[in-house]
Design a protein that fits this description.
The chain is α/β, with parallel strands linked by helices. The protein has three domains: about 40 residues, no CATH class; about 230 residues, 2-enoyl-CoA Hydratase, Chain A, domain 1 (Alpha-Beta Complex); about 290 residues, 2-enoyl-CoA Hydratase, Chain A, domain 1 (Alpha-Beta Complex). It is about 40% helix and about 20% strand. It is built from 21 helices and 18 strands. Strands 3, 4, 5, 6, 7, 8, 9 and 10 form an eight-stranded mixed β-sheet that branches. Strands 11, 12, 13, 14, 15, 16, 17 and 18 form an eight-stranded mixed β-sheet that branches. Strands 1-2 form a two-stranded antiparallel ribbon. Helix 6 links the parallel strand 7 and strand 8. Helix 4 runs parallel beside helix 5 and helix 13 runs parallel beside helix 15. The longest helix has 22 residues. Bound molecules: zinc ion (ZN). Zinc ion binds next to loops. Zinc ion (ZN) binds next to loops.
Length: about 575
């Protein structure tokens, strides 16, 4: 690759982090990362483009767009003079490069900020190029890729540069409304007005390794709070941990990751562009090979034990077995990445889906890390973000349910666990794309239900689904946790009970000792149902989903009393 990154006149350059003396050619071969310590050095926009797109595929637009000086601004030198210097130094008219290219053979609209031009600051030209990039993506129906590196808004253009934040956000909003995908790539550094506008609005946000990003910079914050900041503050890892970015990617892998994402988007656009209309079955048949002869039915307490068994496949294992090409996405974009929820982009029989599930662990260490599959509010906000992403991109959602319930803890209550679940239920009810849910283990309470509002609800033979854990029910209704087996029977939580109550559409057999085959049966059923649902016009889909949700519950024939076959805890004054 022919990189022209600005080395000083010399052939040798010290690594800013580890001080290793690096030869220009060696550095270029390593894409301007330090071969000794991995530190990522700055890249000029042209080098960045060469790194990301297919060779010779980039066609630049509006290269000559130039800034005016509406404020007649002068600091240490007049703004026009400052611009002239930056132009001479960079060979660029302003701080952004806009054009079309292909990545992995798929067309994209691309805009790349150049930090070497006045710190990548966003004035009228940069804002205009970002907006034009979004409009180009919209016109061509191709994904937008924006690569940011910026200190923020350009002060020399005053409030007009502040307004570029609103302009770029409005342009991205058009993409969202039209379902055109947008991938935002953050490269060191991204601050201020760029961070607080288009750079943070990606459907998927990637931070290049070593990137620092935030609204206010560390010096400003330290002056304000008069305390030293923690190590690693605002680094890519920090952003990932706090749920601000989906992925942290090394420069060497960036093109490959983008190619996968853009390929997924192309496949999604292909599937949503009018597949042949199939008729959804009014009442899906039971999965082939299933029967619910009484001798197969196990005791409810045994069923609970099986659903919770430590060796039962986790949702992560199911994802590996059922889907291909999984790209895990992270974070709620607010404050956290809740590891009790796993989700991302995947393929089922080659077709794109968004998959979301509860993540228990395979052992104690993993279980502790994942909070035993019990999400916090941040987990449900992550679910909602992924649901909305699926809706915008026009791909169906598959959920895999396996949780004892939402986490009952102090921080979860402070974060409004109730509202997080409630908003997820409401969003799922109106989601303008097909949703198929599979209970693969424990379906515990509202925390499970948040992922079980669907056009079709399936359950594996040894799964359970219940308003409360049998232990919780036993304590409330019997005053004795030891009565859990009795409570389990009363709750009718087994797969066959749920089938009889009309709660689930299909019960998926689990051949004993063969989790691979069990996963294969899940894949077969989900794939079949998604193919049926794909042909249903969205208004019909939503009407049917509403009828389905509206139909839950049993009333006595005269409509005055509940005929629910489950226990009636409200009569005991208990609420769950
Ligand atoms: Zn180094």
């Amino acid at each position: 690759m022919d990189l022209i990154n600005g080395l000083p006149d010399g052939v040798w350059q010290p690594c800013p982090r580890c001080a290793a003396l690096l030869h220009r050619d060696r550095l270029a071969r390593a894409l301007h990362t330090c071969p000794e310590c991995g530190h990522h050095l700055p890249l000029r926009a042209d080098d960045r483009i060469a790194l990301l797109v297919d060779p010779d595929s980039f066609v630049e637009h509006d290269a000559d767009l130039t800034a005016a000086d509406p404020l007649e601004f002068t600091d240490r030198m007049p703004y026009p003079q400052r611009l002239a210097r930056a132009r001479a130094r960079t060979g660029r008219a302003d701080g952004a490069v806009l054009g079309m290219a292909t990545i992995g053979g798929h067309r994209v609209a691309l805009v790349v900020l150049d930090f070497a031009f006045l710190g990548g600051s966003m004035g009228s030209v940069v804002g205009e190029k970002v907006a034009r990039a979004a409009e180009t993506a919209l016109d061509h129906g191709v994904p937008l890729v924006a690569v940011s590196a910026s200190g923020g808004a350009r002060m020399q253009e005053g409030v007009l540069s502040l307004l570029q934040m609103a302009k770029t956000a409005a342009a991205i909003r058009l993409l969202r409304d039209a379902g055109v995908p947008y991938v935002s790539v953050l490269t060191d550094p991204v601050y201020g007005g760029v961070a607080a506008s288009f750079a943070s609005l990606g459907d998927v946000i990637i931070a290049e390794e070593g990137t620092r990003a935030g609204f206010a910079g560390p010096r400003v914050i330290e002056q304000t709070i008069r305390q030293p900041l923690p190590a690693g503050f605002q680094t890519a890892r920090f952003l990932h941990e706090h749920g601000h970015v989906d992925l942290v990617v090394r420069r060497q892998e960036l093109r490959g990751v983008l190619a996968r994402l853009v390929g997924f988007c192309a496949a999604a656009a292909g599937t949503s562009a009018g597949s042949p209309v199939a008729t959804a079955a009014r009442r899906p048949s039971r999965a082939p090979g299933h029967d619910d002869r009484p001798e197969r039915a196990v005791d409810a307490w045994t069923a609970v034990g099986r659903a919770r068994a430590a060796d039962r496949p986790t949702v992560r294992q199911h994802i590996e077995r059922i889907f291909g090409d999984f790209v895990e996405l992270h974070g709620d974009r607010w404050e956290r990445d809740d590891s009790a929820i796993v989700g991302g982009l995947a393929r089922l029989d080659g077709s794109p889906v968004v998959v979301v599930g509860h993540a228990k662990g395979r052992d104690t260490r993993e279980n502790v890390a994942n909070n035993f599959g019990m999400p916090h509010p941040a987990g449900y906000r992550k679910v909602m973000r992924l649901f909305e992403l699926a809706q915008r991109w026009g791909v169906p959602v598959v959920t895999l349910v396996d949780t004892p319930g939402a986490y009952p803890g102090l921080a979860a209550e402070e974060g409004n666990q109730s509202a997080a679940i409630a908003e997820t239920l409401a969003l799922a009810a109106g989601l303008r794309t097909p949703v198929v849910a599979v209970i693969t283990g424990e379906g515990g309470s509202g925390g499970a239900l948040a992922l079980a509002v669907a056009d079709r609800l399936l359950i594996q033979e040894n799964g359970v689904f219940s308003v409360i854990s049998p232990e919780g029910c036993a304590v409330i209704l019997f005053g004795d946790a030891g009565q859990a087996p009795v409570a389990a029977r009363a709750l009718r939580l087994r797969a066959e009970d749920l089938g009889r109550l009309g709660v689930v559409d299909e019960i998926l057999p689990e051949p004993p000792g063969d989790p691979e085959r069990a996963a294969g049966l899940v894949a077969e059923a989900v794939g079949r149902l998604l193919r049926q649902l794909a042909g249903v016009p969205v208004e019909e889909l939503l009407a049917a989903r509403y009828r389905r949700l509206r139909g839950y519950g049993v009333l006595a024939p005269d409509g005055t009393a509940t005929g629910s076959p489950v226990a009636e805890p409200w009569k005991e004054g208990a609420h769950v």
